Fold this sequence. Notes:
Layout: H1 14-21, H2 27-34, E1 37-41, E2 44-47, H3 48-60, H4 67-87, H5 94-106, H6 112-121, H7 126-147, H8 155-166, E3 170-181, H9 187-197, H10 203-213, E4 228-229, H11 235-242, E5 253-255, E6 258-270, E7 277-288, H12 293-305, H13 311-316, E8 324-329, H14 336-343, E9 350-356, E10 361-372, H15 383-386, H16 391-430, E11 433-435
Antiparallel strand pairs: 1-2, 1-11, 3-4, 3-6, 5-6, 7-8, 7-10, 9-10
Amino acid sequence: MKTKFCITTLCKSAALALALFATQVPERAAAQSLFEAVITVNDAPITRFELEQRTRMLQLLRAPGDPRKLAREQLIEDRLKLQAARRDGIEVSEEEVQAGMDRFASQGGLTGEELAQRFEGAGVSEESFRAFIRAGVTWAELTRAKFGPRVSVTEEDIDRAREAIGRGGGVEVLMSEIIIPYTPQTQEQVEETARRIAEVTSESAFSAEARRYSATRTKGNGGRLPWTPISDLPPALQGIVLSLAPGDVTDPLPLEGAIALFQLRDIRETEVPEPTYAAIEYAAYYIAGGRSKAAIARAQRIEADTDTCDDLYGIAQGQPESVLERGSKAPGEIPQDIAYELSKLDPGEVSYALTRANGETLVLLMLCGRSETIEDEEPVVTAEDETTADSEAGEQQALSLSETERLSRQIGDQRLNSYAQGYLAELKADARIVEK
């Protein structure tokens, strides 16, 4: 069985380190500073170099939250996971680590080697990437060996899951938003402002911050959004929002050229089933000038002159092809900032809250349409399938087995993850963690 893992909240050499970080200090002093222990976990050191590397990697991966805080948490957990695996005699091979790198990189359409090269070019050593993967693969092997025998899924469990699905219904959330754009010159200041806003505990205070800083159309309304089906949100944001209690604010979420924060105001169940989308079609028209008055005024004129995505071809006529992009993608393939803006739109509506090129280009987004998943679609039957079953009965049996396997796997994974999280909490509670 293949090992899987991901970044959680949560979701990838010494010589290189010196070359990257020791440019303006004596070599010996730099090495001492970089490789001194800043945290110990049961006497095992975590160095400043490791913390800086993991922080940089999380920034490149656009992991939600404060990247330095998340890097610290991950590295502490990595030490605990590897220590526990060592006690149980579990050690993964270099081949398994390489396979894990490939699986992780495949989420972005790359090989492990290609992603490692991209990390290297951005200041993250291959060994740091490999260490990240090694901890995840080792933990997956450990938890499967330790708790796998305890996980069983009965027919009653699957029947209850089917019944829950059959009842339909869905979840809607009532949120407020703040999206703060930045340029390279203002990024540090915006990140500091976002961390402060993340500590807000009241709806009125969050709304006041939205009126002051947010670049979205909801700014004048204190960032308040209407009831929204959870399935309309980007996949990565759904889990984050569902982990909040009413009144809670997310950690700052990095987008391209902006920082986003969300406050959950309320949540409710509905009797209307949530739609699931196979693809979302949208268009992006790029306007020079970033968030300047002239660029925003042009976006407003385009909004007034267009009703559908096809109308944008007329707007872009005579300009370079690169100013207009249009396509259809699965929800998980759409960049998170674009996916979030699209979640607020109906077909034909536009948004111009986002920028590209370090804030120098304004993005006018228009939703063209959403294609819902067809649950009753007949499965593809190969010639090999047809030799082992009658047509209608065989197709129904194949569909039934597929659904049963899928539900069984989902239930089993949830239970295994529950055991793993409980075990990690025990390891943390018993650990000696010292910050230098």
